[in-house]
Amino acid sequence: xxxxxxxxxxxxxxxxxxxxxxxxxxxxxxxxxxxxxxxxxxxxxxxxxxxxxxxxxxxxxxxxxxxxxxxxxxxxxxxxxxxxxxxxxxxxxxxxxxxxxxxxxxxxxxxxxxxxxxxxxxxxxxxxxxxxxxxxxxxxxxxxxxxxxxxxxxxxxxxxxxxxxxxxxxxxxxxxxxxxxxxxxxxxxxxxxxxxxxx
Length: 199
Ligand code: AMP
Description:
Layout: E1 3-7, H1 13-24, E2 27-30, H2 31-41, H3 44-53, H4 61-72, H5 75-80, E3 82-85, H6 91-102, E4 110-115, H7 118-132, H8 139-153, H9 155-162, E5 166-170, H10 175-190
Parallel strand pairs: 1-3, 1-4, 2-3, 4-5
The structure holds adenosine monophosphate.
């Protein structure tokens, strides 16, 4: 099963991805984490990525798609399927993704959309910035990231609704309860059931 977790910055994609990989044995691909790791290591890609990330802008599609193509080649990604966290973020990326999966004989099965009101997103990102020191979680960059989300990423909601792949989930509340809704939505959409609850 290949799924994408979709939502505004601060909507809880990372938190719910961790639960998804644990529950379904999927491989986590977070494009944001991958890029931050390159920045930390000071690679050439990291230097390019930093120019965009620090301004709250998206990395160019062709570069991002090439990176994803490489990651999907890893053995771990091919095994049980993946959780894409932060990709696709543009229609061009979504179209490319279809082709990347198609050439590997698979497809994107579902897109989980974490829906969270804007005020809550800002509060969460400010808090995360204070707790983790994440450089782009500052008020100016947050504003740009939300604008970018509305103009470039939000159209994907309709794109995947039309493809019958979009599963809306209320992203406000207790982490485990949000995950219960995700698991129920996935079962309904794909027939894949979660493991029996541990006691
Ligand atoms: P995230 O951790 O998913 O919030 O991503 C942090 C930053 O990394 C974003 O604000 C973008 O600058 C960059 N980024 C992550 N994923 C993508 C993507 N799919 N396309 C373009 N830029 C991305």
